Amino acid sequence: MPPETPTKAPAPPVSLIDLDRSKLADLVTHCGEKPYRAKQLYRHLYVNLADDVDQMTDLSRAFREKLSDMSRIGSLHVKKVMKGDRGLTRKALFRMDDGSPVETVLMVYADRATVCVSSQSGCPMACVFCATGKLGHLHDLTAGQIVEQVLWAARTLKTIAADHAEKGEKLPDRLTNIVFMGMGEPFNNYRNWWEAVERLHDPEGFNMGARNFTVSTVGLVPGIRKLADEKLQVNLAISLHTPDDEQRTEMMPVNRSFPIADLIAAVKDYIAKTNRRVSFEYVLLQGKNDNPDQAERLARLLKPDGVPLLCHVNLIPWNPVPGTPLGRSERARVLAFQNVLQQAGIPCTVRVERGVDIGAACGQLAGDGEKAET
Ligand code: SF4
User: Fold this and answer.
1) How far does CA 65 lie from the centroid of its chain?
2) 268 C-alpha vs ligand 1 centroid, how far in Å?
3) CA–CA separation, 240 vs 63, rounded Å?
4) DSSP letter assigned to residue 278
5) Which residues are catalytic?
6) Residues 227 and 236 sit within 8 Å (Cβ to Cβ)
7) Substitution candidate for ligand 1 out of 140, 218, 250, 318 with most atoms within 8 A of CB
8) Tell me: the pLDDT tens digits for 88-99?
9) Which structural domains are found in the chain, ordered by start?
10) Among 103, 118, 130, which residue has the most ligand 1 atoms within 8 Å of its CB, making it the best to mutate?
11) How far away, in angstroms, is 209 Cα from ligand 1 center?
């Protein structure tokens, strides 16, 4: 008897959000439709925020049926949405086709709405204070999977704004900021991440202004140098967390490859090229990196030629990550640290936290949302 051929699982249908404009146009032609239908389809996805082909009622039924047979809108499956801060923070746990987690956080304020997006499932960077780092690297997300998270947030925001409007409370109904600070290191998935930025920026589609994007990096120097040459000027945030090389390597293994001096040199060049202010993120850990002498050294580091860099320091009181023997800095230590920087002429603020109660704050994303309550 001939050996049995193992049956292969059928490939999942193509995700429409994974197709750029030219590939969408190819799909439309392949379906035997007129080219202008591609523009309609694109607008449904990025302007009308359709999450079902049947919502695209100006396309013929036959075309919609073809689209449903051969494609799906996106490839991330929402498994759980948790609410915090009176429903104004929402953390979505998505699963990829193979079950890998992806998390996205929407934060709604009276005057703005920010979505924090993942660029990878898990993360290879292994920062010691971060829950995502403990998962290791599972996947680089495609441009479409990065975009998809933003579209989820934009739809969710519309619902939140409509619910609050009924109670007479006005909230923004359009996203104002997209920050790449979720799971993963964006510069470790640069090509897909940048394609997502360009797609979301497209004035004929989602139309998010370049200055409303912020990318956060652990300090991958090649990524910083590449970003300086891009034509869209997005905001850059660097996770610094200590002015001392030895300690930084302990906290962030990436420092072995890109030590602090190289990082600051790249930031100086970035500022010289773009004339844009850079943010430094500094997670404060009690008794570890929150001493006044470290604040002094940080101030000196950020004044390489005796004048402050065009920068801003964002102090982040550390958020609890289970199983880590680290402590959150006391308020008095946070304020003393801030004071040293401000006295040195370096603008410095303490981040107001959102989503700590649902594990949605910085460094807390670990794909474990299914354990939590909706
Ligand atoms: S802090 Fe960012 S770069 Fe570091 S492990 Fe966590 S997700 Fe990765």
Assistant:
1) 34
2) 23
3) 51
4) E
5) 103, 362
6) yes
7) 218
8) 999 999 999 999
9) 15-72 (1.10.150.530), 77-371 (3.20.20.70)
10) 130
11) 26
The rounded distance, in Å, linking the Cα atoms of 220 and 227 is 11
Q: Which H/E stretch holds residue 332?
A: helix 331-343
- Tell me which residues have their CB closer than 6 angstroms to ligand 1: 123, 125-127, 130, 132-133, 183-185, 218, 363
Closest Cα to atom 4 of ligand 1: 127
What pLDDT, in 10s, does the model give residues 242-281?
999 999 999 999 999 999 999 999 999 999 999 999 999 9
| CA separation for the pair 310, 81 (Å, rounded) | 38
Q: State the Cα–Cα distance between residues 154 and 89, nearest whole angstrom.
A: 13
Measured N-to-C along each axis, helices 21-30 and 36-46 cross at an angle, to the nearest 10 degrees, of: 130
Instruction: Specify whether the CB–CB gap between 213 and 194 falls below 8 A.
Output: no
pLDDT digits (tens, 9 = 90+) for 153-201: 999 999 999 999 999 999 999 999 999 999 999 999 999 999 999 999 9
Dihedral sign computed on CA atoms, order 160, 163, 169, 172: positive
Q: 122 C-alpha vs ligand 1 centroid, how far in Å? A: 9
User: Looking at ligand 1, which atom is closest to the CA of residue 123?
Assistant: 8
CA separation for the pair 18, 76 (Å, rounded): 11
